[in-house]
């Protein structure tokens, strides 16, 4: 019975499966924590979603990443576009008049959806979202709005972090970073924070496992392995080794919490390395 953690798979389904096979992940006994960003960039976003969706809550747990949040926003936007079009047509407007909407007799939910649509467009977000083409790819694969909404509903209920103990070591697992008091830690920080080694301090008595910032971006760490930072009583471990970037040093890392052993899939050489971090 082992506990595994992985982050930022970003559609690298092949490497993900290679690693699980390498450690002989057993769905009946082992547990896998996936720390967000399963979609975008790599070729297998849909396969990643399907694999996790089928096992979620049993052997597999997942927390939210910023790419899941962006996905949800964009699906919500796509849906609200249809509503905006309907309203424009019905009330003979060229473009949606938001001040009219807000003072109209329209239902509160509709107003809220139209306001979301309006703000999303005003901020130019519709231009940069789905820039990885994931939704486009899903639609090409024959997936409809119903399927996109199934993904959205699944992502929206994900927790933002996990807290667990393995062999008397206390872990926080999160996508980008977390700080005390964790109950009050901003969700934005948990999803978007850039935790460069010298930028964030850990939590006393805890080991924080996170991803989001590829370790290959760290100035002094050109080897693309996990980065362990120790400060007095706290330890932080970044396990995002930038697999999706497909650079010579890029790897996907799988960390086993029981013995802190890391397994790497080197996407170019198609082989595996393992090391124990301490
Ligand atoms: Mn991320």
Task: Write a structural description.
- By secondary structure, the chain is of the alpha/beta class.
- It folds into two domains: 181 residues, Purple Acid Phosphatase, chain A, domain 2; 84 residues, no CATH class.
- Helices cover 35% and strands 20% of the residues.
- The chain is built from nine helices and eleven strands.
- The protein has a six-stranded mixed β-sheet with strand order 3-2-1-9-10-11, covered by helices on one side.
- β5, α9 and β6 form a beta-alpha-beta unit.
- The longest helix is centred in the N-terminal third of the chain and has 25 residues.
- It is elongated, with a radius of gyration of 21 Å.
- The two termini are 21 Å apart.
- The structure holds manganese (II) ion.
- The site of manganese (II) ion has 6 residues, from α3.
- Manganese (II) ion binds next to α3.
Shape label:
elongated
Q: C-alpha Rg, in Å?
A: 21 Å
How would you classify the helix and strand content by structural class?
Answer: alpha/beta
Averaged pLDDT, please? 91
Major sheet characteristics = 6 strands, mixed
Q: DSSP strand (E) fraction?
A: 15-25%
DSSP helical segment count: 9
Order of helices and strands: EHEHEHHHHHHEEHEEEEEE
- The total tally of domains equals 2
Q: Strand order, biggest sheet?
A: 3-2-1-9-10-11
Total beta-strand segments: 11
Q: Remind me, CATH topology of the largest domain?
A: Purple Acid Phosphatase, chain A, domain 2
Which residues form runs of ≥5 with pLDDT under 50?
A: none
User: Which CATH architecture of the largest domain is right?
Assistant: 4-Layer Sandwich
